[in-house]
């Protein structure tokens, strides 16, 4: 887990540097090329820097060992970060959509100056770089099963989508149809808000002790029942904890066995579950006397 966490932090630091450089490029191109859309896009990139700082902070806190106040560890800080990032992402999506609708309703898009070709090039470069950042970050997020990193990846893609809107606006404005910039913003809004809701739902599940799901529980059951000495499973409970799971298992063993033998069987179950399911960070096994 330590190595994975270091990899995630390294990716996040690279993302911060990339976003700062990209925001600078967009600001220069936006001001010199007469594009308000690209300037707004640059501000969006800077907001991604804040989001990535939140992820880094959460990952660092999640790595901390259990202490007196947090005896089960600090992994839930990652879930809190996911919740916050989901809200930020939803806000970004709504703001993009709102600006698009407002521009269409007020007709303000008609008075926008025609942007230069430089702004189109800057927007295209931004799309490529941000999509690459999304692909790298989402791959690491899947490897680590990190919702916070997944949320940050989608912040990169939301920036790419925002740049798509900027590029569409620049191209169509140069062809006398600036309204397409606003239309593109509304379409992009739906994509971003949809992903934000998915991230928020996952974060809420993690913070409310939602179970790991039937598929994982079925595999755990198969492993436990395959352990020598286990008669049956009396109860199996799982809960999401950060980017992993906790499991509480009650097994039945032959009541005539000694306490030491029953303990050894419980230890075997514990070791088998944690060995076969690395996503389970802690497994508690309780023994009941079977008939």
Description:
Helices cover 70% and strands 11% of the residues. It has helices spanning 2-32, 36-62, 76-106, 117-144, 147-174, 179-207, 214-225, 259-276, and strands spanning 232-241, 244-254, 280-290. A three-stranded mixed β-sheet has the order 1-2-3. The longest helix is centred in the first third of the chain and has 31 residues, at 2-32. It is elongated. The mean pLDDT is 82.
Task: Give a nutshell description of this structure.
Helix content is 70%, strand content 11%. It contains eight helices and three strands, in the order αααααααββαβ. It has helices spanning 2-32, 36-62, 76-106, 117-144, 147-174, 179-207, 214-225, 259-276, and strands at 232-241, 244-254, 280-290.
Give the SSE map.
Blueprint: H1 2-32, H2 36-62, H3 76-106, H4 117-144, H5 147-174, H6 179-207, H7 214-225, E1 232-241, E2 244-254, H8 259-276, E3 280-290
Parallel strand pairs: 2-3
Antiparallel strand pairs: 1-2
Helix pairs in contact: 1-2, 1-4, 2-3, 2-5, 3-5, 3-6, 4-5, 5-6
- Outline: elongated
**Count of DSSP E strands?**
3
Cα end-to-end separation: 40 Å
Largest beta-sheet characterization: 3 strands, mixed
List unreliable stretches of 5+ residues: none
H-E string: HHHHHHHEEHE
| Count of DSSP H/I helices | 8
Average predicted confidence as pLDDT:
82
Strand content: 5-15%
How is the largest sheet built, in terms of strand order? Answer: 1-2-3
Radius of gyration: 25 Å
Class from secondary-structure proportions: mainly alpha
Q: Into which percent range does the helicity of residues fall?
A: over 70%
């Amino acid at each position: 887990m330590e190595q994975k966490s270091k990899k995630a932090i390294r990716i996040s630091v690279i993302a911060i540097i990339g976003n700062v450089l990209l925001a600078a490029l967009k600001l220069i191109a936006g001001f010199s090329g007469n594009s308000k859309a690209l300037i707004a896009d640059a501000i969006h990139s800077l907001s991604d820097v804040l989001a990535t700082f939140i992820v880094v902070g959460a990952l660092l806190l999640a790595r901390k060992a259990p202490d007196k106040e947090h005896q089960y560890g600090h992994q839930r800080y990652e879930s809190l970060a996911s919740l916050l990032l989901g809200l930020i992402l939803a806000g970004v999506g709504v703001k993009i959509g709102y600006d698009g609708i407002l521009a269409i309703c007020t007709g303000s898009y008609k008075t926008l100056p025609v942007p230069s070709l430089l702004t189109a090039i800057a927007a295209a470069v931004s799309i490529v770089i941000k999509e690459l950042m999304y692909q790298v970050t989402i791959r690491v997020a899947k490897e680590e099963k990190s919702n916070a990193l997944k949320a940050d990846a989608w912040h990169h893609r939301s920036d790419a989508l925002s740049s798509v809107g900027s590029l569409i606006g620049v191209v169509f404005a140069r062809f006398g149809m600036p309204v397409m910039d606003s239309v593109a913003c509304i379409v992009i809004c739906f994509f971003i808000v949809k992903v934000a809701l998915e991230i928020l739902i996952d974060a809420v599940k993690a913070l409310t002790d939602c179970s790991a799901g039937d598929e994982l529980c079925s595999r755990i059951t198969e492993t436990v029942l395959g352990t020598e000495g286990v008669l049956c499973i009396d109860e199996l409970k799982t809960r999401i904890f950060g980017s992993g799971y906790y499991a509480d298992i009650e097994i039945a063993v032959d009541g005539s066995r000694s306490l030491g033998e029953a303990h050894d069987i419980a230890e075997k179950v514990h070791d088998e579950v944690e060995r076969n399911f690395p996503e389970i960070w802690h497994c508690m096994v309780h023994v009941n006397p079977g008939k």
